[in-house]
Amino acid sequence: MAAGDTRKQIIDAADDLFYGLGFSQTSFADIAAAVNISRGNFYYHFKTKDEILEAVIDKRLADRETLLSRWDETAARPEDRIACFIRIVIANQTKIMAYGCPVGTLTTELSKLDHPAKDKANRIMALFRDWLVRQFEVLGTGALAKDHALHVLGWSQGVATLAQAFKDEAYVQREVDSILAWLDGVRSAAQAAG
Amino acid sequence: MAAGDTRKQIIDAADDLFYGLGFSQTSFADIAAAVNISRGNFYYHFKTKDEILEAVIDKRLADRETLLSRWDETAARPEDRIACFIRIVIANQTKIMAYGCPVGTLTTELSKLDHPAKDKANRIMALFRDWLVRQFEVLGTGALAKDHALHVLGWSQGVATLAQAFKDEAYVQREVDSILAWLDGVRSAAQAAG
DNA sequence: TGGCTAATAGGTCAATTGTCCTAGTCGGGC
DNA sequence: GCCCGACTAGGACAATTGACCTATTAGCCA
Question: Which nucleotide's C1' is closest to A47 (Cα)?
């Protein structure tokens, strides 16, 4: 097996396990078992557990950048792109009900651990924020773009947390409908002002 | 020192540590050091770590029940009571920016651990939800009371998560203003209909 | 004072953790 | 065929964990 393959497999397995169990609760043994390699072999690819974490965060950053770029391409209007973001809580509903939001739960955990990589993890959150700011700017909300962006981002975190706690699919759907209606109000207000 | 005292001190220290570090990251040694007793003495008061967790959750449940009862007494109108709930994200802003929401982060962590006490932890979340439902019912929102309650509860979770990630006080204040305006809209609509 | 029980201290235990080392295998270039 | 570097396996290591035990003290009651 080529080195790149094993390394990628380790990162993928760690990504899943960090999401499902949390970072500190995932052991080297867990990852090694998932990839089916010996624990010792691990040390060849990653010197420390923190190194794996950094690689996982890098991968998540790249994945999200790809996702946002795709939305930029496939959805022409900014309101449609924002709607894509809103609807991921439905697309990923099953996983969110089981493990919460992968971005939110990681930033929360690393923050509590006061882990050196917490700032890097926050960058994933900031990536979504900045992308949303751009969409609202294109939508024509002017100085309110940042406020609206944080509002939508915070909304997604709240929905994910309650979805995990109560496992209520209807609640998620209602919240999506509700924020889409809010988004439409923001759009029409911006277009009336512009 | 009386037995009740030491036990209470252990629970208080564990409460703080579980909030600041997380449950699984807090060790017996951490709690013992905080209370200034020997590790061995621990076993006399609590047989297992899970037993401490249950005691902490019970304490949090009791604390929140007291808090909600106080709001029931001091605030006459339901909209004022709901506003009390909304404003705790400002009252506890410093701690929330450091550690997130004590209720949300615990339920998320225990859910990932698939811990036996996760349902009990969820009861704190449910306590707030049911209280909010009652307030919205008194407010006269009829069948929408449950939807509104979950909306406010999810809002608080989202604000706490982003407050911790971005440490943006102005964001928190804006969100509070915004949801208070929403609450006022709900109130006037309910009173117009009633 | 003597005795009993609640409470505490300190240490042991096996298990698990992240880290690290060494011996070995494999495959392509000379 | 040989060699060298990439890769892997398996285990050693100290540290930490939750759990558990025993000896000792403190406080109260008779």
Answer: C19
